[in-house]
Amino acid sequence: MTLLHRYLFRELLVATLAGVALFSFILLTGNAIKDLFGLVADGKITLGTTIEMLVMLIPFALGYALPMGLLTAVLLTLGRLSSQSEITAMRAAGIGLGRIGAPVLLIAVVGVAISLVVNFVYAPDSKSAYREKLAAAIRTNPLSFIVERTFIRQFPGIVLYVGERDGSTLRDFWVWELDQQNRVTRFSRAESGTLEWFEEDNYVMLVLERGRVEVRNTSDPEDFSRVPLGPSFERLPIQLPLDRVFKRQVFVKKVSWMNFGELVREHRRLAGSADPADRARLLQVKMNLHEKAALAFAVFSFALIAVPLGIQTKRAETSANLGVALALTMVYYLVMISAGWLDQRPELRPELLLWLPNILFQSYGLWSWMRFGRS
Fold it and tell me: What are phi and psi of 172, to 5 degrees?
């Protein structure tokens, strides 16, 4: 490796790592806002659990951040060198585009290998572990939906309100029981109450203490001229089912969360079936295999198109190059998403159409390289 190659390789590697870190952070933040921040705000999961789960998502984010990071790095590095006339000096010294772009292609080939491993092994495993952890974190804290000074409407036919909460002890507790038209038929208010979770039967036992019940006319609950007060009580138990709040279900791994070995086994299991549902799932398996591979080769596609583009644009500004990188990324993923919409049309071979963005980008990249070489 010549001195020039070492210089370019070092500059590109540092910029690539910075770009991958930036886009990984953006993707992780997006997942956190979508899945976790609301749960943290409601007290359903702890901040420590949130950080642990975000760390679990890093391999998943890397699968998308690697192509974008390398694309941005090439545009930034070569754009800066071109704007400072260093590329012109290289060409005047007889250095062609092939030698200039060699470090980029080397990093791209290594990036493709890393992406294949990440996309087929670490990313799906981390996504599955993340989803399992998220479900488990919520279920291990089932009383977290009780938020003080908030109307709680998760239970069918019941509205709860708690003035103050101290662990499982509740103070100033209000309970409205509703009919089919959501009209109040029974109202209970107690000085305090306690909650106990019965995990095996998936319900919460609410025990109200020192309160009074107001029972309304079931035929006309909105007739407030006849609202007899029920007796006061020292202790009133109410059973609240949790099936609607925390659904009890077996964790089923989605096709997109399967690693390479699981996808291959699922492909073999479904290959000989004539059942329409199995055929539809088989197409999903095929599309996921091709999608993960196509996303890995996106690293090479982006690198191939970025070298002549970075040299020709001659932009040293970071914001401008980031804008170009984001625009190219959007075009790439838009074409891929459009191919994914054809998952109900197996006769069109949508799993092969997922390679269309790579074909377009690499074709344009090769044409640009040849055009640049003739100039």
Answer: 55, 65
Using one digit for the tens of pLDDT, what is the confidence trace for 26-39? 888 876 776 676 66
pLDDT of 237 over the 70 cut: yes
Residue 307 host element (H or E): helix 276-313
Distance, in Å, from the CA atom of 162 to the CA atom of 158, rounded to the nearest integer, reads 13
pLDDT of residue 294: 93
Q: Does residue 1 have a pLDDT over 60?
A: no
Which of helix, strand or coil describes residue 241? strand
DSSP 44-87: SS-HHHHHHHHHHTHHHHHHHHHHHHHHHHHHHHHHHHHHTTHH
The pair phi, psi for residue 133, each rounded to 5°, is -65, -40
Are 102 and 57 a contacting pair, CB within 8 Å?
no
Residue 148 phi/psi, 5° resolution?
-65, 150
Where do we find the tokens 């049309």? Answer: 345
Burial of 200 (0-12, 13-18, 19+ CB in 10 A): exposed
Distances (CA, A) of 331 to 194, 327, 343: 56, 6, 20
Confidence of residue 158 (pLDDT cuts 50, 70, 90): confident
23 CB-near residues (< 8 Å, 6+ apart):
61, 64, 65, 68, 69, 72
- CA 99 centroid distance within chain: 39
**How confident is the model over 277-315, as pLDDT tens digits?**
888 888 889 999 999 999 999 999 999 888 888 777 655
* E-only strand ranges, the chain: 151-152, 158-166, 169-178, 184-198, 203-215, 229-241
Nearest to 190 by CA among 222, 238, 151, 146: 238
State how far the Cα of 329 lies from the Cα of 80, in Å rounded to an integer: 21
Q: Which residue has the tokens 């909105």?
A: 222
Number of other residues whose CB lies within 10 A of the CB of residue 99: 14
Give the pair of three-digit tokens for residue 38: 């609301």
